[in-house]
Amino acid sequence: MRALLFLSIIILIGACAKKEFCITPSPVYTTLAFKTYNTKNVLVDTPLQNVDIYSIDPEVIFYENLESTISERVYLKRDITKQEFVIFQGNRRDTISVFYKPELNFVSNGCGYQTFFTIENVTFGSQSIDSVKINNALVNDAPKTYHLEVIYK
Amino acid sequence: MTHPKHITLKLFISSIFCTFFFSASLFAQSNSDSILVRSADSILVKNDTTTALKIDSVKVKEKHFQYFRVGVDVSKIIRSSLTNKYSTFEFLAEGIWKSNLHYVAEGGFATANTFGDNVSFTSTSYFTRIGFDKYFFGSLYKGDLDNAFIGARFGWAHHDRAEATATLWDPFYGNTIITMPPASQNLYWISLTGGFRMEVIKNVFLGWNIRGKFFLNPRTFQELTPEYLAGYGAAKKQPVFDYNLYLLYGFGKR
User: Is A4 in Cβ contact with B9 (below 8 Å)?
Assistant: First the structure.
C-alpha cells in the first residue's frame, strides 16, 4: 500500500507543470541628453530652462513642459520608422528627426514580446543645436543609457 | 525464476532508493572484484582475488542480440491523463549485446498546449533516443535479468509549433496582440540515465529510469518554448530531470 502511494506521488509530481507568471518588463524609451561645450572645449550637461518638448507626428501624442532639465525620455512608436520632436525654448524652436528600425524582442512565455529599436539616423534643425550624436543606437530596456546627445551651440 | 508476487512491488520501489545511494560504489565493485561470477557451465563460484580458482574452460564466444525487450512508459500515459498541458507517449526497444551491455532505442511523440495570459500556441513533437545501458551485476542464475544500470543517450526531436498569439508589451502606446507564424525546429540533447529492471513474471519486466538531459543546441528554443517537448520534457529547463516507469516484454533466447 505504501509502495503504491509512493509511486502515485512520483507520478503526480511528474505531471505538475508550473504556470508562467509575468514580471512586468522594463519600459523601453529613448533618452536625449542636452549638452554643450564649455570654455575648455569639454562636453558638459546644459540644463534647458522653461522648455517645451513635443512630437509633431499626428499619430504620437507627446508633450512635456519642464522648468529645467538636462535630459528627456521620449517613446518611439513601433509601427512607424521616423519620429519628429520639437524642442521649444525661449523663442527658439528646434526639430529633431529620429529614423529608426523597430525589432521584436521576446521577453518570456509569461509576458510575450516588447519592441526594441535601432536608431539609424538623426537630423535636426540648426537654430540653436550644434549637432546631435548617436551615443547608443540600440534602444532597449537597459536603464540609465543616453541614446542621443543633443549638443547646443 | 521470478520473485514472489507479494514482494515484487516492494523490491521494485526499494530498487529506486538503493540504486541512488549505492550505484557508484557497486559499479566500481562490479568492474574489479565481484563476489559472484558465472562460470562456463553457469555454476556459481566464489571469486577470491587472492586465491583465484583456476577454471579450465574453453572460452565460449558470446552471442549477441539473442534476447530483446520492448516496452512502454506507463508513467507518461498516466501523467498525460492528469494534465491538459501535454499528452505524450514513449516506448522502448533494447537488445542485449553482452550480459552487461544493452543497446537501447527509444521513441515517442507529444502534443503540448501553451495557454498563458500573454502567449498561446499548440505544438507537436516526436523524438528518437539511442544509446546503451551498462549493467552493474553478474547474473545470479542462468537467464537472470534483474539488474541495475547506468547509461547514456543521444536524443533528437523534431518540433512543430502552430501559429502563436502573443501580447506585444507597450506601456506608452498600449499593448496589442500579435500573431507569430508557425515554426519548426530540430533539437538535440544528451541524457545520462540510471535505473533498474526486474522480471515480475516470465518475460514480463517492470523498470524505472531517471534521466538528466541537457540540450546541445539550446539557443534554438529561446522564443516561444513549448510546455513539453517529446523525449526531453519541460523544454524551458536546461538541464532537466525526468523519470520513466516501464512495463516491458522480453523475447528471444537467454
Answer: yes
